[in-house]
């Protein structure tokens, strides 16, 4: 069944539901202290009530539809062979399944393709090293990069403006059909904020279905929030604090956020905390794609990574048993949505093309 979004509030209702079983409920003042830790932790992952949009780029269905079309259209690449979706595949958790992004020359770019899933909740600067001030500022870096889409801004605007159907679409989304860089950025960002992870077994468990996830995953959840301390950075519904941390990866010139804040010891080798929704679909992992599996990721955290002055204070050797590491992996698996593609997108528009 399909429906047409009429307004931002209507979208939020349709995506998240009128009666939200995930919503936080006020409790007596002494309830938190009396509750067992697991119940308190579960409350911290409650589902948000709506998709947030910035005041200077509010949601409209016309703008979102324009952004959707641009996201899937190779018109924004120099030779017409690539689109945004070429690297952000819905059934790969909106990444690409490669250690590092593929260049247009079929070689490797510098970094692993980050997911665009749940970007509406990613606070602060974006990109593995924080090079983007916000989602609106992301689009034209890959579009203009010679190794990526290789299309200069003036030519991108000329191409779109020469297409009568695009001019009409810009006229519906904005006050007239003029094609500008800012409007392309606004439309793409609006669409990408609709890319939202769908319900997962973890969500059903949070809602009260104790049979939704197995016992090893529940033990993994306790470790995630307790002794392993994963939730220190991967907290909240999207499982990200939106910040930058050195977790003991990155070597030599691979300094992450430290490239832009060179005088900060803490930000040397620091990279953006990715969200963990649909993480099992997004192998390989880390900013450089160096870890092939979730088991390898858990092993890295268990070892504590590289000990150095910039390493986060929350990263330390854990001494987990093999069974505990397996429990953590089992928990991470429960974050996989029932269907790939994102709830808002699946309801909003036609199914995306297969890679």
TrEMBL record:
It is found in: Periplasm. Residues 1-19 form the signal peptide. It holds the Pfam family Cytochrom_C. It comes from the Bacteria. Its main location: periplasm. PROSITE patterns: CYTC. GO terms for molecular function: peroxidase activity. Residues 215-336 form the Cytochrome c domain. Gene3D superfamilies: Cytochrome c-like domain (1.10.760.10). Keywords: Heme, Iron, Metal-binding, Oxidoreductase, Periplasm, Peroxidase, Signal. PANTHER family: CYTOCHROME C PEROXIDASE-RELATED, METHYLAMINE UTILIZATION PROTEIN. This is Cytochrome c551 peroxidase. The gene is ccp.
